[in-house]
Structures are given as structure tokens and as C-alpha cells.
Amino acid sequence: MHANVTGTRRLDWTTLFLLTFPPLSWAGNAIVGRLAAGTVPPVTLNFVRWLLAGMLLAPYAWRGVIEHRAALRRHAA
Predict the structure, then answer these.
(1) Rounded to whole angstroms, how far apart are CA atoms 37 and 39?
(2) Residue 21 belongs to what domain range?
(3) 28 vs 9: CA distance, rounded Å
């Protein structure tokens, strides 16, 4: 972010995205949930939601998994 002479900060594109993405995704989730009610079983809808969330978060977590794979293997056994 850039500070101007008055000390206030301007919003950059990353900040705007991070502020608008959660409400838009929650709203989309509510709309899809209402449209799918009665046609898609709740367990399937929940599975698809978690699958999508995992796929969106995996690229951000993958580096940490690779760096700590030895410790993860130790604790998984």
C-alpha cells in the first residue's frame, strides 16, 4: 500500500480482492445451496464445497508441506 502526505493509505488490487472475495463466495454458496436444495443430496453438496476449498487452498499450503514432509511423516505413523 502507498501512503500519501496525510498518512492515509490507498487500497491496492490485492487488498480489494481480499476484501471482496469472501462475501462474494459466501453469497455464491448461499445461492448454489438454494438452487441445489432438493436435487443434490446434502452430503454431495458438502463434499463438493470442501473439495473446491481444498483445491483453492492447496497451492498456498503445498510449499509448507514439502518443506516439512519429514516431520509430517514422523507424526503420521
Answers:
(1) 6
(2) 1-39
(3) 30
